[in-house]
Write a structure and sequence with these properties.
By secondary structure, this protein is of the alpha+beta class. It is 44% helix and 18% strand. It starts with a helix and ends in a 16-residue tail after the last helix. The C terminus is likely disordered.
């Protein structure tokens, strides 16, 4: 993909995308699972299809009824989302810090490899929860996130 295309997609993702760490409770399991969740939602199918063509994933449509337009949501899998964040990160402005934290979270998960059949320690669960909360707190309600990079105009 060309740099100009990546910059274009990064601009759209900065405005319409989402990066989070989801806590997944599993029935019959003592400990929750934490996983990266990347998505982009918009009122036109064209943009999510660009993301899907470039990075894989799936697209869902939510009909909203009345005169409201449907919402098209692109969701990559965990590995696709990681690849997307790695490739797009140099071009992000508003979500750059969130993307870096999400990448560090996944790299840290690999280092803290969890063996099936063994429970996570309380320390591991607290660490996952802290990373989840930190990423959530980066979503500033004023629209300013992290280190703002001014436009070169």
């Amino acid at each position: 993909m060309r740099k100009i295309d990546l910059a274009y997609l990064a601009g759209i993702f900065d405005g319409e995308g989402s990066i989070s760490i989801a806590r997944v409770e599993r029935k019959g399991r003592k400990n929750p699972r934490y996983q990266l969740a990347v998505s982009l939602s918009i009122c036109t199918p064209y943009i999510p299809n660009l993301f899907k063509m470039g990075f894989g994933g799936s697209i869902n449509v939510q009909e909203r009824g009345g005169k409201r337009r449907p919402i098209w949501t692109w969701r990559p899998g965990i590995k696709e989302g990681l690849c997307f964040l790695e490739v797009i990160n140099p071009y992000l402005r508003l979500k750059k810090d969130e993307a870096l934290l999400a990448l560090q979270f996944e790299q840290g998960k690999e280092k803290r490899h969890f063996c099936p059949g063994h429970s996570r320690t309380e320390k591991e669960i607290v660490l996952f929860e802290a990373e989840k909360i930190l990423l959530h707190k980066m979503h500033d309600k004023t629209g300013f996130r992290g280190n703002h990079i001014p436009l070169d105009i």
